[in-house]
Structure to design on (379 residues):
């Protein structure tokens, strides 16, 4: 089975949109600027809607894409050894470089009294803390969003077992993993975020059973409306009860983060028809660059903001930090690609990258019209 151009473009579109949304999830705040103390009314509700409800679908959706692409050619053509070699370059190496670089930087700035309270306290970290800070062994790494890459590595290592279980007992396998992902008290002990394991396995299911990914596209409008409405209802409940959400709301949020990915996939069928959607689908490895680089920028902006301003102006920080982070990541992505293409290739796991016109490039060399990045994911 191959991925046709429409599916591939939609996958690339979803990646950049969802990762831009994940940036909103990670905008920092403290107790005084919490959206749950209600100092900014509607603005705080919007923060909860975007960061605590709607874009929580980002990680499960990206996980499902990864599982799907891993087995898009079928079970018989899956080469575990080749996959491990490929993913060590495209996932493991970037994870180590981005996370360990930030770890070294944090260690340096904390030596001069900066960053304390914003990043983990590395100066007083015990021996048992360093494997987590450096590698996310049992807790979040210092570059917090990279837990996704850490969990993705675990899923890739388990992929032959997951594929075997999906082939033999798909309903039971997915049912058990869904329950583990939804109920907070259940713990699988392998991944830091349990929804990743379920969604990755669900992606394998879609690939192995050759599910028609366009079959539900005709329901795109009503499903999009349902996603917007249910996210709003959930956000209202979270806004009224946070920051310590009732157990039922936690379960519902977990359910929406997983099921909402289906609605967002249908939405992509509408977005890809627009000029903006087409342009976004050709942004290539900008999505990966944004994912790996956004968190340190947001925290640094928060450190600077707290030095000169207070919580009463937080809406200005929120909007400004998000826009500045997007701008710097887009600018740095282009500059590093142009001036240091070999470094860029390593930092992005040698993912496909495109120029402004949408032509695919390898380093600084233009190679013309090629399949979109998603079609090259399993190579």
């Amino acid at each position: 089975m191959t991925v046709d151009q429409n599916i591939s473009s939609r996958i690339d579109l979803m990646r950049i949109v969802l990762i831009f949304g994940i940036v909103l999830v990670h905008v920092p705040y403290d107790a005084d600027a919490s959206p749950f103390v209600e100092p900014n009314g509607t603005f705080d509700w919007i923060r909860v809607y975007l960061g605590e409800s709607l874009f929580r679908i980002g990680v499960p959706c990206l996980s499902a894409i990864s599982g799907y692409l891993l087995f898009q050619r079928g079970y018989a053509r899956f080469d575990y050894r080749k996959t491990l070699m490929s993913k060590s370059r495209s996932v493991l190496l970037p994870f180590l470089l981005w996370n360990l670089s930030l770890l070294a930087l944090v260690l340096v700035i904390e030596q001069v009294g900066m960053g304390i309270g914003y990043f983990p306290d590395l100066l007083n970290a015990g021996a048992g803390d360093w494997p987590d800070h450096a590698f996310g062994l049992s807790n979040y790494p210092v570059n917090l969003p990279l837990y996704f890459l850490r969990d993705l590595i675990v899923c890739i290592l388990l992929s032959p077992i997951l594929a075997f279980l999906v082939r033999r007992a798909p309903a039971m396998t997915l049912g058990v993993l869904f329950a583990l992902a939804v109920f907070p008290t259940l713990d699988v002990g392998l991944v830091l975020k349990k929804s990743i394991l379920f969604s990755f396995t669900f992606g394998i299911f879609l690939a192995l059973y050759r599910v028609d990914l366009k079959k539900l596209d005709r329901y795109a409008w009503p499903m999009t409306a349902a996603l917007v409405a249910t996210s709003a209802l959930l956000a209202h409940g979270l806004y009224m009860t946070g920051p310590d959400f009732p157990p039922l709301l936690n379960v519902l949020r977990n359910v929406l983060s997983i099921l909402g990915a289906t609605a967002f996939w249908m939405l992509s069928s509408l977005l890809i028809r627009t000029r903006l959607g087409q342009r976004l689908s050709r942004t290539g490895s900008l999505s990966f660059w944004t994912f790996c680089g956004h968190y340190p920028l947001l925290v640094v902006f928060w450190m600077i903001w707290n030095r000169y301003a207070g919580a009463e102006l937080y809406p200005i920080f929120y909007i400004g930090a998000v826009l500045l982070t997007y701008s710097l990541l887009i600018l740095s992505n282009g500059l590093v690609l142009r001036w240091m293409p070999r470094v860029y290739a390593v930092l992005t796991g040698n993912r496909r990258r495109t120029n402004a016109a949408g032509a695919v490039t390898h380093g600084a060399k233009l190679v013309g019209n090629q399949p979109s990045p998603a079609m090259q994911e399993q190579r």
About this structure: Residues 286-374 form one domain. Residues 355-373, 375-379 have pLDDT under 50 and may be disordered.
